[in-house]
Structure to design on (175 residues):
């Protein structure tokens, strides 16, 4: 499926889809299946929904939502917001200041930039019995040059190339 100029809204099927958005602004809801979704050079909202999806934002300020499954998200150039969703996900923000939202699973962020990117954690991952910053730092260890933060219950986050999580901008989302 290929979209049209200006504003582009597309819906996938329950099967495996290949969707390419076009125009200045695009919204894609891929539905179930193992989908490959490529955004436009404008601003995109790409929602993989269920399945093992590959979402690429290209240029522009994009929101990529992985959903259930083991997803690969690549924001491309621009200020992007990436949510892996349930499952084991790989997130790459690309050029620009990005926000990575971790909600569980065993995820990897390939290009977190200290002082530029932001990490948002869902509240259920945080132990409220101790200070948040201390809990985050205490849960982290460096393995093969990458910070690995183990939140327990099968939830862990690997940050490629990060060796000091104390330097990160981290927030938790209470809802």
């Amino acid at each position: 499926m290929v979209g049209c100029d200006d504003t582009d809204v597309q819906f996938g099927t329950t099967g495996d889809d290949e969707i390419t958005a076009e125009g200045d602004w695009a919204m894609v809801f891929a539905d179930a299946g193992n989908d490959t979704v490529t955004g436009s050079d404008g601003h995109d909202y790409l929602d993989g929904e269920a399945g093992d999806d590959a979402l690429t934002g290209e240029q522009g300020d994009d929101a990529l939502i992985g959903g259930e499954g083991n997803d690969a998200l690549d924001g491309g150039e621009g200020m992007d917001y990436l949510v892996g969703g349930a499952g084991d996900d790989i997130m790459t923000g690309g050029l620009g200041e990005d926000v990575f939202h971790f909600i569980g699973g065993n995820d990897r962020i390939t290009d977190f930039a200290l002082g530029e990117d932001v990490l948002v954690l869902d509240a259920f991952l945080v132990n409220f019995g101790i200070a948040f910053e201390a809990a985050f730092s205490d849960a982290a260890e460096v393995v093969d040059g990458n910070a690995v933060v183990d939140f327990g219950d099968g939830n862990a986050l690997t940050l490629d190339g990060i060796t000091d999580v104390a330097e990160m901008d981290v927030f938790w989302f209470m809802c």
Observations:
- Residues 100 and 119 are 5 Å apart (CA to CA).
